[in-house]
Design a protein that fits this description.
The chain is of the alpha+beta class. It contains eleven helices and 18 strands. Helix 1 runs antiparallel to helix 11 (364-378).
């Protein structure tokens, strides 16, 4: 049965590329609701046409609409997760067109992560055409706002994860070997505000206390909190402050990115930031923010999912599948607290968010087959 899946999908490589071209040429920058909504309609229609399943458009008034697809039936479910939005602005397709050269497919969003979406569609298409039935339903949830932190899809994703026995995320794989992601760092986003005392910089500077000088002290303190051995990082990514050149600055600000491997490390990081105290007399320090995405930790349940994938890849695809961790966040971070999550099942390629973004054509049917086999095994 599983051998049939591989052979079946190998024959559909050209068809997969045709669908991929159509999807990539429909641009979908996160903040362009009109374009993203058109892609949502396309995905819903083609999910129904290709898989015979049902698709629901989840409306959102501010951000792009989301798509909830369902295939099969059963009281229990498996969640397949992806996003349709990209980081590329409207018009990028004109300067970075869809093209295939030397087994590489180029185009905005082709690797992150429209290739993964096509592979997911064709995995379910193969199960339908080969008449492979599952005892669990498959929910294929495609959100529109992953690239901007899931402001409208977080609750939807978490709700579906709580009902799922396993979650398969179609984010790109790591490296040319197509490593799966069995851990992701949690992400914290914080805003630091420093208040000083304004004064005329030329007439009476002694009456002022510089918020920017205080911010400099705080930046040095925050950067000293890095613990690379534990994988905990603090990055002051942007700073601003002051009003004009001849005024001792009253206000200064910084944005801080925090990455951690575990929930306990996130709690420690938050506590460290909350303990920040002013150095200069007359200044005050305020920190706001918190965890944006919790860690996807490599639990035994996650490891067990990877072992299944590794065994299937070795036996049927003749691939030595590997696993890695990453510091980047994804929808998988949102599902990890509620269900075992295996990430990186999408395209194999390189250049996410970069001008050379591409995927490897010959991996598309293999990765699609791997997902289909995982669903067949875990859905029994």
């Amino acid at each position: 049965m599983l051998e049939q899946i591989v052979v079946h999908l190998e024959k559909q490589t050209e068809e997969m590329c045709n669908y991929l071209q159509e999807l990539v040429e429909m641009e979908s920058p996160s903040m362009n609701k009109q374009l993203v909504d058109q892609v949502a309609e396309w995905l819903a229609k083609n999910f129904q046409n290709l898989t015979g399943g049902s698709a629901e458009i989840i409306q959102d008034n501010t951000f792009g609409n989301h798509v909830k697809c369902q295939w099969g039936s059963g009281e229990k479910q498996i969640l397949v997760l992806g996003h349709m939005d990209t980081v590329w602005p409207e018009g990028t397709i004109e300067t970075m067109p869809f093209r295939i050269k030397d087994d590489k497919v180029f185009g905005p969003g082709v690797f992150d992560m429209k290739g993964g979406l096509i592979q997911g569609l064709f995995a379910l298409k193969a199960l339908k055409e080969l008449e492979i039935t599952l005892n669990k339903k498959v929910v294929f949830l495609i959100d529109s706002d992953e690239e901007i932190g899931n402001p409208s899809s977080r609750a939807i994703i978490e709700k579906e994860a709580k009902k799922s026995d396993a979650v398969f995320v179609l984010e790109p794989a790591i490296g040319k070997k197509g490593s799966l992601k069995t851990s992701r760092k949690g992400v914290g986003i914080f805003h630091l505000e420093v208040t000083g005392i304004a004064a005329h910089a030329g007439i009476e500077p002694q009456k002022g206390v510089s918020a920017i000088e205080e911010l400099a002290h705080q930046i040095i303190k925050i950067q000293s909190m890095n613990d690379l051995e534990k994988g905990t990082t603090f990055n002051v990514g942007t700073i601003s402050g002051g009003s004009t050149i001849n005024v001792v600055p009253e206000k200064a600000y910084a944005e801080v990115d925090v990455r951690v491997k575990t929930k306990s490390e996130m709690e420690k990081a938050i506590a460290s930031l909350q303990k920040l105290k002013p150095v200069l007399k007359g200044t005050s320090v305020s920190i706001t923010g918190g965890a944006n995405r919790m860690s996807l930790e490599r639990t035994e349940e996650v490891a067990a999912l990877f072992r299944k994938a590794k065994q299937l890849a070795g036996q049927y695809l003749h691939i030595e599948l590997t696993e890695r961790g990453t510091g980047g966040g994804s929808d998988g971070n949102l599902t990890a607290p509620f269900a075992p999550t295996l990430d990186g099942l999408g395209a194999v390629g390189d250049g996410a968010h970069a001008n050379h973004e591409h995927l490897l054509v010959n991996h598309m049917p293999k990765r699609s087959a791997l997902l289909a086999m995982l669903l067949a095994i875990c859905g029994k």
